Every structure is written in C-alpha cells, then in structure tokens.
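In response to reviewer comment 3 from the previous cycle, which asked for concrete evidence that the modeling workflow produces usable outputs, we include below a single protein chain processed end to end. The sequence was submitted unchanged, and the resulting structure tokens are shown without manual editing.
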Amino acid sequence: MNARYTEPHDLADRALRDRAVAAARGDAPFDLLIRGGRVFDAATGTLCARDVGITGRLIASVHAPAARADSRRTVEAEGLIVAPGLIDMHMHVESSMITPAAYAEAVLPRGVTTIVWDPHEFANVHGLAGVSWALDACADLPLRVVVLAPSCVPSAPGLEQSGAAFGGAELADMLAQPGIGGVAEVMDMRGVVDRAGTISDVVQAGLESGKPVFGHARGLAGSDLNAFMAAGVTSDHELTSADDLMAKLGAGLTIELRGSHDHLLPEFVAALNGLGHLPSTVTLCTDDVFPDDLARAGGLDDVVRRLVRYGMPAAWALQAATLNASHRLARPDLGLVAAGRRADLALFEDLSAFNASLVVANGALAAEGGRMLAPTKGISSAPLKNSIRCRACSPDDFRVRSEGRRVKVATIHRPRFTEWGEAETDVRDGFVVPPEGATLISVIHRHGLAPAVPRTGYLTGWGSWRGAFCTTVSHDSHNVTVFGGNEEDMAVAANWVIEAGGGMAVARDGRVIASLALPLSGLVSEAPLADIAEAFTDLREAMDGIVDWQPPYLVFKACFGATLACNAGPHQTDLGIADIARPTVMETPVLKILG
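The workflow returned the following structure tokens.
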C-alpha cells in the first residue's frame, strides 16, 4: 500500500515523534529550518515573527527568531509569510483537461498542497476503472489528493446514460478503500429529497463508512433543503446568491465557496463581511478551472486572491483555505503552522498577490520560485484511451423528423437556469424547420452502452449562432454534445471530435476553425499545460466569432453544463429532453402535429 494512503496515521510513527521531540528540545538538529519569516496563525488570524523547525514530515518547533541555528538545511525567509498550505475542498482535475501529475505541477508551486478531487468525470466514462486509475495516478504525487467516491454516475439516472451506473454496492466498495476520503457531491437532489432510486443507497453507504458526504444543493430551500440535510448530506458549493449563502450557512451546511462563478463572489464577500466574523464552516474551492485560466491565474490561490481583492480580509481568506478546511476533512495534521502538525507550508511574498516563493509538502522542499524542484511521476494512460464509440454523422442526423406540415415543439429556454418553452414551426421534406431564433443542441451517446443516435432539441435565449461547436466535455455524462446554427457545421464539428477520439471543435462555413484533441476519456490530454491552454484560448476566441455572449449566464462555459440533467428544468440528454420534475424523457421535441 502506498504510504500516502496511511495518512494521517503515518504521523503516529514512534521514531518520527522521538526525533521531532528531541529536535524541539534542542537535543538534535532540525532537518529543515525556515528562518526570518512571519508565521500566519490561522487560529487567530495574526502574523508573528517566528522560525519554523521541521523534522521529517513534522513541524517540530515554532520558536522565536534566531533562537536556533542547528539544522541540516536552512531556508532564509526574510520578508516572507509562512502559511499553512492551501486546501482546495472541491474540484475536478478533468476540468483542467490535464493529467493529475500535470495538475500537481501547476498548483503546488503556487501554494496549494491539498486538493479534494471528485473524479466523477472519469467515473462517468470508465466506471470503477476510472476511479481506480485516479487513485493510482495521484498516489505518488507531492500534491496531497483526497479522492472522493463519485456519487452520481450518471448524475440523473433514467434521464441520461453515461458509461457506468453506480449504486450503494459500488459506493461501499470504493469507500472501503483507504485512499477514498468520502462521498463526492451528491447531485441527484430530487432523488435524495424524495428517497427515490439508488441515491438513498449511495448516501447510506457514505453514512455507514463514517466518511463525510459532500453535497450539491443548487436551488434547495425550506423543506427540500431540510430533507436533503436530514438524509445525511453536509456541504454545498452550488450557491446562487448572497441570500442563498446565508440561508445555507444558517441551516448548518459547510460551505465550499467556489471560484468558478466569479460574478457571485463580490456579494458573497459583502454578506460575510456584514457578519463581522468568518464562520468556521466556510471553506474554499475551485470546482472547475479551465486550462487557460489555470495556466494564467492558478488554482485555489487565485480564489484566495480574488476574495481579498473583493474586500474579504486576507486573514479570513487564508483561514477558510487552511484551518477551516482541515476541520471539515477531520485532518488535525493540516491547517496550522504549529508543532506536531504536518509540514505543509506555503511561503508567500505578501497577503494580496499571494505569490508563493517556496512550498514545503510533507516536510520536503517541493517548489521554489514558481517551479517544481523535481518532476512529478505520471502513470500509463492506456486505460483512458479509445473511449469514443460513435460513427460519423451527416447533417440529416441533426434534423428532427416529423409528419405533417406544421408542428408545435418544446424548447429549452435560456442557459443555466432553464425553463420550458414552446414554438410553432413548419415541417419541410419530413424534417422540422428549427424555430425562428433557436439554437440546435444534439447529444449522442458515446459510451457504447446504447445506440449512438443523435437526440436533437431547440435552445432559445442562446443568441444567434453563426457556426457550430462540438465537445465531449459535457457534464456529467460526457456524451458527444453539439451546438449550432446549422446542421452542416454541426456535422463537420462532430466528425472532427469523433475522429480525434474526443475533444472540442469549432466549425464555420463548412470547416473546422479551432480544435483541441482530448484523447484520454474524451476529457484530458497528455500534452503540456501551456499547449492545452493555448489551444483552449484559440477555441474561446473562435467561439466569440460564432455567438455573441451575454454574461453572466450566456457564456462559453454554459456549453459544458447544458446537459446537466440533475439540475432543475429541462435539459437535452442522449435520451431526449429530460426534467427531474417529470417522470418521462421526451425523445423528440415535437409536441403536436398542427396540420
């Protein structure tokens, strides 16, 4: 068994404690001495001039400046702030489209020493084998990775199909593994509240394991929120407003304040500042970080930086990202710069830019000056390849067939917070003419467990598209999803992605104008982050020419969540138009033949 899977019990090592105690007394030298800095105390939110002595993976002593000089190695930290390493409480490595090893190289030099990873993207493509690969991929990384057991594979059973289906038995098997830290975000909210389907078995497996059950409670309030929490779910990151934040804090949920919805952060900061103190149940997370954002701005360090820029006291932001997070994880070895704690440290230049000069991970110097001191070790990606099981498409595959000459069709109105709509339109040569102003969306099952038949619907409130976009990054079942203003460009984009083994493509005037191959699970590439970030930036720019975005909801990111059927309202899936409030899926958007 990998040593990482014994944490935090590895600190019970008698010989290690003997050495640390001797060093703390002054009877033995430290292995590493950090001298001349100011230590951030996450318990009090204060800074104090202190030196830090480290023995093995333990902090042995936090003492007065220059009181000790005996150490095998000394780091001069004059002008630097010695803080606990940052803890990202909810994230998906796959959203950055790189491997776990590459992700570690991206965030650890920035001061992030622990991430809590829900690999439900890999799980929705590969099932239990995807989770096993995730565990193996991060076992030997210098970045601490707490892997969670994906709870919603698929996210909305019966409304969509992914590459696997998890129930209570699968969760129990995963939770029995020492490398699994809890149940990942429970997304089937309706199922939890109604005690329906397999999700109750999933939550029960988490409760019986004694490990935390993390949540996804978007839009829940009142009796539904109480029922969700009574079932055993204890956290949420799906906040929609400051009022929602305060209601969920008051209800007793642990909050994972996420950076991926930046437009909400200023009002969250204002609401928390209005309390006059930071609740101990506020933690921070990134959730999803696109590769260009990761390369440019970082991971959780960027969230901390933005919160401070929006007016949150720096001490609060650091407390949320360190001590509060350690409490939530029940990891008393993390979150403080104190004797007896694990030596996970980030040395920042200041508490505004949060540039990390040096990072210590598990007692070892891991990064300096924004660079890893040793390369990370990846594993074979072979199990993740060849995951696209679709044939090439023709433009007619994206047209909706119907009898008659005129029909009434269902539409899916606006991004993110979707609503049902209706429209009347003509039928020509056996195909429905898309309603005026509608954007086409089509989803193709790509996991080989059902026919790969495009299911097409109509989006309204998505602007006027001048081309098409195809992606296999499509939360959370990650089927082939195509958007467009015309069927010809949709076929061009889809066929490029299918041929590439997964990824994204933008098509206009019959040709692909930007693309990114993601051959691992249709989600990830082994190319360097810089290359993926550049290609993704090109995709963003190409999409700016395809549709006129209208923030905060009609944005490029909306394309990746348009099929998330566990959320309220209608969503297009590989089965048709699905809605958690309705018992059946509409295979076709045609509601009625009018003539």
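The chain has a mean pLDDT of 96. We consider this sufficient to address the reviewer's concern, and the full set will be provided in the supplementary archive.
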